[in-house]
Design goal:
It contains eight helices and three strands. By secondary structure, the chain is mainly α.
């Protein structure tokens, strides 16, 4: 019998923190997913997380947990897939630590993410753009900053990453005002009174 507790701890302290240098949000998301899994198994079997063996987390158990997320907790398919990503990351790490459980681990890794319909990309109407630009509190500098960035995005079609990488020298004011984008496909996006123009390539 091989308990999962030591591997679970080093997965966070060694794999995520030291090796991958994962962000606090990623670590928190993985922690929440595995906490829900351990709670599910404990509720179904009565086995405490500290005494769980890898055989207690076979593919059937993981599949039942994923169904539980959708059917009982009302999670979306997207959330289900995010939880599965955390579980698969743990098992991929465990494959290097516990080759004696290689078959069980591979069966869990073979569980595919669930397909889901992605919403179609749509455009904002003129009224929606106006409402968006009017939302920031312009009596505060943060509001004026946010409005300027959103107006720039609407008028030029720049992506968020492109806007945040701009320098003062990239913006030309006056007649024919435009924003210059750098990259392998350098481009210039003119300011327009309404609607997005051609999107520039990301800087770098």
């Amino acid at each position: 019998m091989t308990r999962i507790a030591p591997t679970l701890q080093t997965f966070f302290t060694d794999r995520l923190v030291r090796q991958r240098q994962a962000s606090p949000r990623t670590i928190a998301a993985y922690r929440d997913a595995l906490r829900l899994l351990l709670g599910f198994v404990h509720q179904k079997t009565g086995t405490a997380p500290t005494t769980l063996d890898w055989d207690d987390l076979n593919a059937d158990t993981i599949s039942a947990f994923l169904n539980h997320l959708e059917d009982d907790r009302g999670n979306s398919i997207r959330t289900r897939n995010v939880r599965l990503t955390a579980i698969r990351s743990l098992f991929a790490y465990a494959a290097l630590q516990h080759p004696e459980h290689a078959r069980l681990i591979q069966q869990v890794l073979d569980i595919p993410p669930k397909r889901h319909d992605k919403p179609a990309v749509s455009f904002l109407t003129a009224g929606e753009v106006d409402a968006l630009l009017d939302a920031p509190d312009q009596s505060r500098w943060e509001g004026r900053r946010d409005r300027a960035m959103m107006a720039l995005a609407v008028q030029t079609g720049l992506r968020v990453s492109e806007i945040t990488s701009l320098n003062c020298g990239d913006v030309t004011f006056g007649e024919g005002a435009a924003v210059r984008c750098e990259g392998k496909d350098a481009n210039t996006a003119p300011f327009r009174s309404a609607g997005p123009s051609k999107t520039c390539c990301a800087a770098g």
